[in-house]
């Protein structure tokens, strides 16, 4: 897809194609003014492409902008409750969820404060709280950590892990290269109006209609909710079949690919988890070193959800690279 602001204006983005799988954590980087925020707004549905299309966006999509519009004539509580109702919550449910999210990010004392009176840091906490009201299937974060204190930044890291563990896709931009370092399943760079897939060896060639395939994602971050069904299809298998792995698709002029069909569930007695720990992380009991780095942990299928939850919500979280079901 592409985006420009006026028929005689230059293209901000053009020829952009990508597949963002369920449960994936995706990092976007690029120079100032290069189109990162435009891309995030398009993904979140705040803006629409000038050409091409975006398909597969989950019904519940949340967005934290780079600058929160704090000058609205509402209190924090009224604003969050209203947004909760927009997301389909009841009035009472929205109020409870708003209070919970504010407390989580250390802003509970500001519930009845007008938005216009908030400091930069507190307004940013409100921005994050509104994005997490309705457990989004797509969470888009544009410099969302900026202005947060250390405790709130750590809490947002945890919320990102929880979202991907539940099968949601998280796309983020952050100026700090150490933010969630080592965790993203995919890494893109916006440059010269295009989108490059960044690999461990550096940026790959720009992705266009001829070479746009599925990123090397296995959906392992969604394993906490899938582990008792059939194993998630690998990206390689999907690419070989000519179909995306599911999730959000950004298309150019070509037709959208068909989603790969799932297979029937099979009896699973154990689950092998391949994970990479944070610096200084203590491996779980029973873990053994994995070839190429990280650890391998084999657990009974009935305990796998709990083990994955502990890994993904640890502070800082572990990165789950793969989940293999064992008969």
UniProtKB/TrEMBL annotation:
Residue stretches making up the ABC transporter domain: 2-217
Keywords assigned: ATP-binding, Nucleotide-binding, Transport
Domain of life: Bacteria
One Pfam short name: ABC_tran
Keyword ATP-binding listed: yes
InterPro entries in UniProt: AAA+_ATPase, ABC_transporter-like_ATP-bd, ABC_Transporter_VariousFunc, P-loop_NTPase
Annotated transmembrane regions: none
UniProt protein name: ABC transporter domain-containing protein
Source organism (scientific name): Streptomyces polychromogenes
